[in-house]
Amino acid sequence: MATVRDISAATGLSTATVSRALRGQACVSKETRQTVMEAAKKLGHPSCHIHRGDSIVVLSSPYEKQITPMMIAVQGMIETGRASGYKIFDYTITDEDTLSDIADMVNEGIFAGIIIPELPSNLLEKVMQIEDKSRIVQCCGKNDLLRSPCVLTDDAAAARKAVEYLISLGHVRIGVLAHSEKRAFSRTRLDAYVKAMTAHGLRISDSWIHYVNSTRYDFAYQIAVSALKAPDRPTAFFAFTDYYALALVNAAHDLKIRIPEDLSVIGFDDLELAHIKTPSITTFRQPFEQLGNIACSLLINSITGDRPSRTEYLIDADLVIRETTGPAPEQQVSPVS
């Protein structure tokens, strides 16, 4: 998406002048405004394609490089928005300039509301500045500093279910491949994992908890190899994404560890790779489109004057049992060289 800075570079005008021209302020001459609008149209600035008040902007997080829950949830938002006469515009926010443009258009009434995922702190600060004057719903991720309602998968319930299912198969050494501690959903799942293990009287070793801190598959694979080479490695892992589960499955194959005979793996999301991979991956199916439907409905209700009655809406994820989980091995595992 083109930003004010892009238009400024193309026209040679200051960013302040460009911003005033886009807002239609009287202090900008007709000739300057025409120059700005022509550049905006050529570069694809959203102000040229949106009718005031009937559009909702969905911000995609710069955290992710692969397919994300928010990307899939947008389909549900489009469906719900269209049924109510709203257009949905999806933008990946990569910098503060882009978010500033969006914030300006919200303040000017061009966008009726915003749906956001979990955002990095530097971008979140800008959203916090407009929260009191804007209609915002969080979806597929929670920003703890915002008061706006959020629609989420019940991560705690899913993590608890993952641990309890693996325990039912006889596993007592259960590890995790987690996201960064900076991510809210990762903290929630990890906390639920610890509570579930403790509730069943099972010990937890620090060496069983691995943070990937990246969306890159090759980095996850390296962490998986290291985890599987540990002398006291778990007989089962709960991976916080299907990409991490895939890394574990491939690392196990390369280390001659049999799945599920020697190692069980549960993923999260139920992306396409989970069921086309051999062995197919046991995982949690997130109700992406349902999350999008609910988030968009809440926002539209808020736009029309019906404020949400709750601040958090949790939707269950279903455990889909496939080929990467099985009974715990009868004998202690041996370290892999």
Question: What's the short story on this structure?
Answer:
With 337 residues, the chain is an alpha/beta fold. It has helices spanning 4-11, 15-22, 30-43, 69-83, 96-107, 121-130, 155-168, 184-199, 217-228, 242-254, 272-276, 288-303, and strands spanning 55-60, 87-92, 113-116, 136-139, 150-153, 174-178, 209-211, 236-239, 264-269, 282-285, 312-315, 318-320.
Would you write up a description of this structure?
With 337 residues, the chain is α/β, with parallel strands linked by helices. The protein has three domains: 1-47, 434 Repressor (Amino-terminal Domain), CATH 1.10.260.40; 50-148 and 290-316, 3-Layer(aba) Sandwich (Rossmann fold), CATH 3.40.50; 155-281, Rossmann fold, CATH 3.40.50.2300. Helices cover 42% and strands 16% of the residues. The strands form two sheets. Strands 2-1-3-4-5-11 form a six-stranded parallel sheet, with helices on one face. Strand 9 (264-269), helix 11 (272-276) and strand 10 form a beta-alpha-beta unit. Helix 1 (4-11) crosses helix 3 (30-43). It is elongated and about 80 Å long. The mean pLDDT is 88.
